[in-house]
Amino acid sequence: MLSSHYPFKLPPLPYAYDALEPHIDAETMHIHHDIMFKKYVDNLNAVLRANPIYQDWSLYDLLAYNDDFNEEVGTAIRNNGGGVFNHYLYFDGMTPEKNEPTGQLKTAVIRDFGSFDNLCACMKAAALTQFGSGYAWLMFDGTSKLRIVKTPNQDPPPLLILQPILLVDVWEHAYFLKYKQERDKYFDAWCSLIDWNKASKRFTAG
Ligand code: MN
To answer: Do 80 and 130 fall within a single domain?
Structure first.
């Protein structure tokens, strides 16, 4: 998805809509993936349709070099391209098939956080203190350290500095139907759904 370019397509959900029950309900998945994620894809395509000089830019470049655009186009690309990138990673980062952290990522988590429980606690603190809508991320600085980052709205993370490993969507639309205002309970549920295999691949791919 990161290296793809206009016209962007909505990636299918990598599991059944009800596969993450009871942690995340099927209705939330339908609304979140089929309507909200799709809207960001459609809106990003509309922005690029009107700005053909950027149609061969990859999603990564559109977000990483966003400061190069004029303000109006840059904001539209950041909001909608960020919505595409963030949702792609969010849905792709969960699995109904529980798996464990392994390999180099496991080593790095133990080194930087002491334990996976502590990593989850640190990400949870970021997720719960993200004021309003946004995301909490586990990212890697490319050479030495894992970092926890918060981003507001659909802003992409600082891609030129850090490499995304994991993220949790803390917009209310991600959890309100089932958890109402209880973002902490949703976070705990999300933690039990992390696809560590994919997180490990992202870590070693960078
Ligand atoms: Mn969302």
So the answer is: no
